[in-house]
Amino acid sequence: MTLTGYGLHIWASIVMVAATAIAGDTLTAHAMKNIGDLDEIRAKSGLGGAILAVISEPTFVLGFFCMAVSFFSLLFALAPPAPVSLIAPATGSVTYLGNAVVARIFLHENVDRRRWVSAALVCVGVWLISK
After folding, report:
1. 95/76 Cα distance (integer angstroms)
2. pTM (2 decimals)?
3. Contact criterion met (CB below 8 Å) for 118 and 93
4. C-alpha separations of 34 from 30, 64, 74, 98, 105 in Å
């Protein structure tokens, strides 16, 4: 047992869930920026055209795959003897913090101070839970 009493495999599962969720969120957000306004596409090409625009975007498909891996990683992470009271908030907080960092660096979004403070507070809460 390491890292405040929990096994390394539990923390590795948390990191895997968060990393694939962050990658999925980032890739799908990037894909949707590339695709553009779906209402305009739907107005020109109909619903089928909008669906085709989304599923033919490679970064969307890769993002979708990452989200699927994240989901199944979460199922693996929640298998006994993993404590749900640690896994759920830890994956959420790491994902929340990671999304803020990635949105700022790769998507060039403005992440305000309140979001950074809230992400830090959530991480402190998870640290307290893990004690």
Report:
1. 17
2. 0.82
3. no
4. 6, 15, 29, 22, 17
